[in-house]
Amino acid sequence: MAATPQAETVAPETKAIGSDDYALSRVPRDKRFGFWSMLLQWLAQSGSISQFTLGATIGVGMTFGDAFLAFTLGAVILEIVIFAIGLAGMREGLATPMLTRWVGFGRNGSALVSFVIAVSLVGWFGVQNTIFGNSVSALVGGPSWMWCVLAGIAITALVIFGFKYMAVFAKIVTPLFFAMVAWSIVSTLKDHSLSELIHSPPPGQTIPLAVAATAIAGGYMTGAIVSPEMTRYNRKGSHVFLQSASSMILSEYIVGLTGVLLGHLVKSNEVSHIVLSTSGAFGVIVVLMSTAKINDWNLYGSSLGVVNFFQVVFGKRIHRGAVTIVLGIAGTVLSAVGIMTHFTEFLSILGVAIPPIGGIIVAEYWVVKKMRKPLDETRESETLPRTSPTWVPMSIAIWIAASCVGKFYDGGIPALNSLATAFILYSVLGLLGWVKPYGTSTLDDEDDAPAPAAPATTPVGAA
């Protein structure tokens, strides 16, 4: 029987691969995750051998007491930033690229934000994948490019299907990692006096407190700025605080300070072999899985940024799963051929440009509160405002100025300097009425509709 025109109109869409994960809309309250699922996602970000290495590096140049102060300073700075930005993401159910449309930057400005975040995160995905491949090659043999390809494919496959499956992976990896690490550390330290290690002098050249705090806070500042990518799935503001604070305590005080003790023990920052050598093949597998669990967030955040960028610049809504495939392939190939390591300086520059985004978000959302009014009006209905500012030129100027402070001012913590500069400038100028939006953009109809080729109810990865 021939199809009628009406039948053609309502023909089902072709199903896309993976989940769109509310890339251009609010995460509905009934699709958010419980406390324990989200806690494991947060704790998974602490499960990295590199954090032990950072602790050992600091321990080589500091006493245990000074290292404790450095980790405390870094943890407090990060927690303040994460909570201030993450709480905004939780309240609105929006990731950072979408949030900036109504919080500081306007529609076109959000495209610039999305581009910077996407390039930075997919770049670090490639860099981390290269480190991953080289490490596995050194441990078990085989060409590093092969391990880069295998890891890249595995992480891409996970991220395609979105937050739900990333949460399941966290439930598996996080307990295994910390159980394995605890056993390795206890086995190593049981024959040594803990008191002597705590009170022993630093075995290497002294590291100033500001330098150590810079390494601790600056290294994760980009992750703090894009915390709404995770917190938009939280149900309560108290959960955001408790989970992020738990992650800070585990990452900085337990993992980091244990690294300090190991650094005093072996008098070197080469401590990863302690965990790997005492846990055998199982330990290697768990460490590799935990590394993948951290790197998946780089790819996930990048995919959300690209989706918003294309919607704003080209007027095209593309599926986040499809974007993930493209970005994953690109990052994997570049890491396999060894190109990504040449871009670390460029990525470091972008890293200084990202903290001011957080400063502007915090200033507008919690202090100035002039552009966020449409979000307040539509929050209960869980829809997006029908219009948004097109440009906010003063925000772009503040962003550039704050980035320059972070890049060229030598004192303090560069990432914190640029963030604080942006926060202060936007707060003062915004309250004076000098931060003004220009133009009004109407939200495209498809922005509030289900993602292309996604089910009309719940995307695969958001249940």
TrEMBL record:
Protein name according to UniProt: Cytosine permease
A Pfam family this chain is assigned to: Transp_cyt_pur
InterPro entries membership: CodB (IPR030191), Pur-cyt_permease (IPR001248)
Similarity section: Belongs to the purine-cytosine permease (2.A.39) family.
Residues annotated as transmembrane: 39-62, 68-90, 111-132, 144-161, 168-186, 206-228, 240-265, 271-289, 321-340, 346-368, 389-409, 415-435
Subcellular location: Membrane
UniProt cross-references to CDD domains, sorted A to Z: SLC-NCS1sbd_CobB-like
Keyword Membrane tagged: yes
